[in-house]
Batch of 3 targets.
Target 1
Amino acid sequence: MMSNWTYIVLLGAVVAVASLFLPRKQQEREAKDTRNMEIALEQFMENTELDHQELVKLVSALREEGKQQADANKQRMTELENKSMLLEQQLAFLQQQRQNDLLQAAQTMPVSGMAKAAPAADQPTIVDQEPEQPVSGIQLRYPDLFDFYRQGKSIEAIAKKLNMNKGEVQLILQLAKQEEKAYV
């Protein structure tokens, strides 16, 4: 029979052997978990790198597109400025030509100087109406409008009779006044 000491020694040996195996299993699990974490982090980093590369490509494409749009806008702006200058030159030419035409028309129209100098004593003078003035170019274009206006018709009535807008009638009257001021 074995002695108590032998049992104690055997029990100690079993505990010692068991203690050696238990930490190895725990160390193996920790190592396996660490390896799994490393693999997961590597995959995450690869995915992040791919996303980063896609973003860089997208930003580059957007930057290039923005540059192309800016160049196109700059070119369009230059074209519009050139067209604007051309239209301003044409407008100046047409205004000069119109003034020349109006001067010619004014010179060829007979002007009754006596009516201006001495109105008849029994004839009332009308401040707004001066038929002896040379007729401006715009008055030649719209004779009905100016006839109605001289008769004292309202702008609304003139617009209705001539199928025009009130704003258009007002504009024509203002242009005629400006032409008269230019000749005075």
Target 2
Amino acid sequence: MLVDLCRNVIDLLDPESVETSVADQEAQLRAIAKAVDQLEKSGVPVPAPLRSEKTRLAVALAVQADAKQALAQLADEFEDILKDLRERIGPTPATTEPRPRGKRSKLPATPHAVLREQIVRAIQKLGGSGRVAEVIEEMGRQLEGRLLPGDLVWRATTNEPVWQNTAKWERFQMTQDGLLRRGSPRGIWELAESSQ
């Protein structure tokens, strides 16, 4: 059942299920943004459907980026779970050569509770909600000089330092715990009413 549940979650997050490719959507968004800019510069009112399509494409691209990020985080967590399972099972007869795996750093890293506090503080400073990049940037300012060596290790699977990846995963946990609002638009982090 657990494996089926995991597969269902992966299918829900899979950005490849989108009909239009990311490159096509990005090209469409650039063209629409250029048309909107030209209309505004000319003093011509921008038709509402054109603005709506620009917003829809921007949201769709943000959803796909978040889904890819969530899948990468899930893969990292699954690697840790597999390692733990193999350690619990113990040695097994060698039937195949072991595959090389990336190892997580053993360097000290900022505790999740501290990252939670910083997420809340950053979102509060942004007025109760903010785009992912804005929240991470604000957290970076708050944590400047306080990050530990393990926080600064580069995670190639997500193309970012460990602390940012951990903060994004912690944001997901905070929505599950009711600290951050569920159902926020993709790419937006919002405090739950009880946290404000």
Target 3
Amino acid sequence: MSHYYTTDDTPHDFKEIKYNINGKTYTFTTDRGVFSKDRVDFGTDVLLNAVLEDYDGPGYFIDMGAGYGPVSIVLADHYGGDGVAVEVNEDAISVLDTNMHNNNVSFDIVKRETYDDMELKADLYVTNPPFRAGKDTVLEIINDSYERLVDRGAFYMVVQKKQGMPSYLKHLEMLYGNVEKLKKSKGYYILKSIKHVS
């Protein structure tokens, strides 16, 4: 797994943002060097709304590429379940921990290297992948989802057509044996697959 971003020696630039979803407002602290530090990005918003509308829950979740934590925090709060937020950016991990406590939820926060050594299974795997890290990294995340999910576990990802949506759709169909374009909004697609062991 290529770690696309881990350190930043420039001064911290903490910022507090609000995010409204499903009738609730969350407060997040962000910092320089983290993805979409000024607002929860549109793709993550579409992804979260699609998951909340579609997934019954609860269950153990994996949030791959968690950033400062909007997906993990909303999932933990909405479903009352437990899970793990996986991130490579050290600044993001720091504010993610702060945001988890400030929003009164609890889950594990781990670096990718630690996660790779963990033996865990999940009911739900959600990702807004780091497309700038390259296609191989995104495919590796998709493959990881299949390995980590239990039977009938659900995988959700957000991707724009220009980021290679058709090729990821094809890969999911090949890997899982099923894939659904669950939602589309302004060029963003939510792809969903269900793992079937037998």
